TrEMBL record:
It comes from Pelomonas cellulosilytica. This is Xylan alpha-1,2-glucuronidase. Keywords: Carbohydrate metabolism, Glycosidase, Hydrolase, Polysaccharide degradation, Signal, Xylan degradation. Residues 1-23 form the signal peptide. Its EC number is 3.2.1.131. Pfam families: Glyco_hydro_67C, Glyco_hydro_67M, Glyco_hydro_67N. Homodimer. It comes from the Bacteria.
Length: 711
């Protein structure tokens, strides 16, 4: 009785909320499927009267149908039936084997995962065809059709097709087995290892739906700073349980593998990759994994980096290590993603180390190894030049790794849409005959094994990503991994329409706010090519003065080199000559400050404070102006967001507004602390009209953040 009363109450509450913006908390991500307005509902219903199945039954097909029904029920307010009879206004899910007579399509172009959406007449009936060569393609196509509805496409004239340009589109979760997430700002790890494998949180399904809606087809479950425990039988059973949930959504699981596991788990005396017993151990381990996870994706490995074990501990190189694992996984179809994020050999210029260690190994890796390279040569800074390895290893598959979680961009409290950052690296011309996107999609050097990885920003927070707008970074990663040539603004437009509102004026206002946001962070943190000025360890807040860390190349002063004479890291031929790692056409441009874009100036050059900038200002004046511009942009973002209040549901509007207030405050802090510090180096007065920092430098230096998240 009590339950009935509760249900009636809930239904009534639900009815009351219809018509006004229902409270939203962000859990639904971009898959909200809220009711369309009356006319649009009628149009949608006319195009989605039933789901017609012309494809073999499978769990993935079931997932596609469930999603279509969920979407139509939400947006058109109607339950739709599933049938095998072709009815007018049907959504026809078709694969070549079972396609209805008369359906002629360019199936071959779609590949295994691609899809096609087309409104057409079939056997005398007007229908919408969702076609693919596989059930996963149909699932992706169904999500694409729902996106078309959500973004206001003309359903009566629909004609779209798409196939992924990159084979492996992976999230890298830096999740520890105790649920702490390294560089996580969205709560604890989603993976409840303790309760797995018996208890499956329903959230795992929603995670899989969200990924499938973008085409993400793999997840590395555990941190690159891996514990060997993740390879033990109990944890493999847990990973297998997750794999079982994800499988219908086309998502494979991968694990980060600790290189020394044969010693730690196997009791061997060595993890030397050329030792037969070590090789046998990994082979047996791979067999064991595939026995419980038949479609296991493979290993991600961080070796000889930041204290992690690796082949160099035994006088071997990265190829020796990677190839040993590749040999173990190869018979099962698994891959090794071997990270190029290393900086051990020589601290004279940390930016050079990845290239120095890896480029000479070009062509030495087994065919199922991908070398995974961060977007830039240092470490996920607000701006870096693209990594010089892109284009420089023609005989080796290279994956691009970007960071979705904003370790160095203000955590989840700062609004920074990363689409422009991702697109900037993908569109950068390597000078080796194509842009980075052509390395990533394999076309530049004819690689068939291709991948793009994003370090996830997902956790147990109700809104998944720590903030409403950080969802856009997960989204942008997925869309760009599928098609690296998409424009960041186009992706933002889809996201904003799906996540907030499809009304064009409001949607475009959101997009405009997003598109300037990353540059704002660059300006108020690290303008003009400065980098790594963040607080020690946690990377929160400004600390350009830090000079006392154990390793020289952990200190901000190492990176900015500011003194009375000027500022910047000289990577020109007169300095570290890091620029020589780029193709000659690129190196030539970036060797000369006058042909280096201002955005990268102090990355490559150490210049006097009075150096004349293209703007007509001195370098000192320009630096200050950029810091001020960053603060002003955030203030402007706040105004733009306030103006959107009538368009956005109250709870999410208020939450974003509160976050923007934090960001405005912290942007000012960054600006003030950096100007105070750099002024102490330059010894120059502030340009006329510039407001002095609120506090003395000592006050900024004194700030400590003992429990900052993500460490
Ligand atoms: C840095 C992070 C550190 C990661 C490392 C990596 O500060 O937590 O372990 O990268 O990518 O950005 O391995």
């Amino acid at each position: 009785m009590k339950t009935v009363v509760r249900w009636v109450g809930m239904v009534m509450l639900g009815l009351m909320l219809v018509g006004q913006a229902a409270a939203e908390d962000g859990y639904d991500l971009w898959l909200r499927y809220r009711p369309l307005d009356g006319a649009a509902q009628a149009r949608l219903h006319a195009q989605a009267r039933a789901v017609v199945l012309a494809a073999p039954a499978s769990p993935s097909l079931d997932a596609a149908v469930a999603e279509l029904r969920r979407g139509v029920a939400g947006m058109a307010g109607r339950e739709i039936a599933v049938s095998t009879r072709l009815v007018p206004g049907a959504l026809v899910l078709a694969t070549p084997g079972q396609a209805p007579a008369g359906l002629v399509l360019p199936w071959a172009d779609l590949g295994r995962e691609g899809w096609l959406l087309r409104r057409q007449t079939l056997q005398g009936r007007d229908v919408t065809v969702i076609a693919a060569n596989s059930d996963i393609g149909l699932l992706y196509g169904s999500f694409a059709w729902l996106r078309a509805v959500q973004t206001g496409a003309d359903l009566a004239r629909l004609d779209q097709r798409s196939a992924p340009k990159v084979g492996l589109r992976l999230l890298n979760h830096w999740d520890n087995l105790d649920r702490h997430v390294e560089r996580g700002y969205a709560g604890a790890s989603l993976w409840d290892w303790w309760k797995l494998p018996d208890l499956l949180d329903p959230r795992y399904v929603d995670y899989a739906r969200a990924n499938a809606s973008l085409g993400i087809n793999g997840a590395v479950l555990n941190n690159v700073n891996a514990k060997a425990d993740s390879l033990t039988a109990p944890f493999l059973a847990k990973a297998a349980a997750l794999a079982g949930v994800f499988r219908p959504y086309g998502i494979k699981v991968y694990l980060s593998a600790r290189f020394s596991a044969p010693v730690e788990l196997g009791g061997l005396k060595t993890a030397d990759p050329l030792d037969p017993a070590v090789r046998a151990w990994w082979k047996a381990k791979a067999d064991e994994i595939y026995a419980v996870i038949p479609d296991f994706g493979g290993f991600l490995v961080k070796a000889n980096s930041e204290g992690q074990p690796g082949p160099q501990d035994y006088g071997r190189n990265h190829a020796d290590g990677a190839n040993m694992l590749a040999e173990a996984l190869g018979p099962h179809g698994g891959v090794v993603m071997w990270r190029a994020f290393v900086y051990a050999a020589d601290a004279s210029d940390r930016a050079k180390q990845g290239y120095v260690e890896f480029q000479p190994l070009d062509g030495k890796f087994a065919p199922n190894v991908i070398v995974q390279v961060k977007n830039g040569p240092i470490d996920f800074q607000p701006r870096e030049p693209f990594h010089p390895l892109f284009g420089a290893m023609p005989h080796t598959p290279l994956a691009l790794e970007v960071q979705i979680t904003k370790e160095y961009l203000g955590f989840s409290t700062h609004l920074a849409y990363l689409g422009p950052l991702f697109a900037e690296v993908l569109q950068a011309d390597t000078g080796h005959g194509g842009k980075v996107a052509r390395v990533v999609d394999g076309s530049l050097h004819g690689q068939r094994l291709t991948a793009m990885a994003g370090v996830a920003n997902i956790g147990t927070d109700r809104n998944w990503s720590g903030s409403q707008f950080d969802q856009a970074n997960w989204y942008a990663f997925g869309r760009l991994a599928w098609d690296p040539d998409l424009g960041a603004a186009d992706v933002a437009r889809d996201w904003a329409a799906q996540t907030f509102t499809a009304r064009p004026a409001a949607r475009d206002a959101i997009v405009a706010l997003m598109m300037g946001s990353r540059e704002a962070v660059v300006d108020y943190m690290t303008p003009l090519g400065l980098h790594h000025l963040m607080g020690t360890g946690h990377h929160y807040g400004p600390a350009p003065w830090v000079d006392n860390l154990e390793r020289a190349d952990w200190n901000p002063v190492y990176f900015h080199r500011a003194g009375r004479d000027g500022i910047g890291f000289d990577r020109s031929p007169a300095g570290s000559n890091g620029v020589a790692q780029y193709a000659p056409s690129v190196a030539r441009l970036w060797s000369d400050p006058r042909t280096t874009p201002p955005e990268l100036l102090l990355w490559f050059h150490h210049l006097p404070w009075d150096y004349a900038m293209p703007s007509g200002r001195s370098l000192w004046g320009e630096l200050v102006a950029r810091y001020d511009r960053g603060v002003a942009t955030v203030d402007d973002m706040r105004r733009r967001w306030d103006a959107l209040k009538p368009e956005i549901d109250a709870a999410r509007h208020a939450e974003v507004a509160a976050y923007l207030a934090v960001q405005a405050h912290e942007a000012q802090w960054w600006r003030d602390a950096c100007i105070a510090y750099f002024q102490s180096m330059s010894g120059l007065p502030l340009p006329a009209g510039v407001r002095p920092p609120a506090l003395d430098l000592a006050a900024y230096k004194a700030r400590q953040f003992a429990f900052a998240p993500g460490r």
